[in-house]
Amino acid sequence: MELSHAVEALSALAQESRLSIYRLLVEAGPEGLSAGRIAEELELPPATLSFHLSHLTRAGLTHARQDGRFVFYSADFQNMSALVGYLTENCCGGRSCAASDAMLAKKGKGHETLSRPRRRT
């Protein structure tokens, strides 16, 4: 994935409604959801939904398909994987991140942060 495509995709997801729409479509899987169902689930007006869906489609994150009178939208899982791959391709300097993940999980368990005493002035 090129930098410009990654920026466009991340920009499209950097908005609350679009991120909610995208997450809903990812949950729905490859079959996707009708525009009406998305609007119903997220309580978005049709014009607003249409604006956000077209933005996600231009960014390559969703596909639209006509089925009779209905338009169904689905997440583009290939582009989603490419974006995640782009973000993580040089993760941990090429070393396995498994040790880092295990370390973070261990640190989080039973780890309590103590507050510092306040300075008196």
Can you give a write-up of this model?
The chain has helices at residues 3-13, 16-28, 35-42, 46-58, 77-88, 98-108, and strands at 33-34, 62-67, 70-75. It has 121 residues and is mainly alpha-helical. The chain has a three-stranded antiparallel beta sheet. α2 (16-28) crosses α4. The N and C termini lie far apart (54 Å).
Descriptive key words:
disordered C terminus; 12% strand; mainly alpha; 121 residues; elongated; 6 helices; three-stranded antiparallel beta sheet
Quick overview of this protein structure:
This protein has six helices and three strands. With 121 residues, it is mostly helical. Strands 1-3-2 form a three-stranded antiparallel β-sheet.
How is this fold's topology laid out?
Layout lengths: L2 H11 L2 H13 L4 E2 H8 L3 H13 L3 E6 L2 E6 L1 H12 L9 H11 L13
Antiparallel strand pairs: 1-3, 2-3
User: Structural class given helices, strands, pairing?
Assistant: mainly alpha
Q: Could you tell me the mean pLDDT?
A: 85
Number of helices: 6
Helix content: 55-70%
Shape: elongated
Terminus-to-terminus distance? 54 Å
Q: Can you tell me the residue ranges where pLDDT is under 50 for at least 5 consecutive residues?
A: 111-121
Largest sheet properties: 3 strands, antiparallel
**What is the rounded Rg?**
20 Å
Strand order in the largest sheet? 1-3-2
> How much strand?
5-15%
